[in-house]
Amino acid sequence: MKSFNELPMDIQNEVKNDLKVYAKTNVTFENGAYHVDPGVALKAVYAPDHEFIGTYKAKDVFTEKERMLNYMESFHDYPIEYKGERDYKMLKEIERNWNARFMFDGEGNIVLA
Q: What's the rounded Cα separation, in Å, for the pair 86 and 16?
């Protein structure tokens, strides 16, 4: 398995994008290109250059706080492990704004960035 930092930058970004929603994702190399997919499929025939690069996990790529923010941005809800104040009025106001970004304030609460 290649370390995450050994992957090309565009593939690292694609892996990070998958890991915002999924707990893990897989990277393969086939037909001269990298492929990122959270599922695994068996094929009857593989390309001559096929290589399984590795499985990457969200907990290894993101910090716990980053994973909480990813959850908020992906699902517009608070993760179970979040212990700060929960502002459901804020979530209702942005419910259709999927470009909304969140951050932790100085008191450890998740707020709009």
A: 26
Could you tell me the residue range of the domain that residue 54 belongs to? 4-61
Give per-residue burial for 14-52: e unless 16+ CB within 10 Å, then b: bbbebbbeeeebbbbbeeeebebeeeeeeeeeeeeeeee
Residue type, 13: N
18 and 42 part of one domain: yes
Q: How far is CA 4 from the centre of its chain?
A: 13
Residues 54-103 have pLDDT tens digits of 999 999 999 999 999 999 999 999 999 999 999 999 999 998 899 999 99
Q: Read off the pLDDT of residues 1-45 as tens digits, 9 standing for 90 and up.
A: 899 999 999 999 999 999 999 999 999 999 999 999 998 788 889
Task: Give me the number of domains the chain comprises.
Answer: 2
Domain check: are 37 and 54 in the same one?
yes
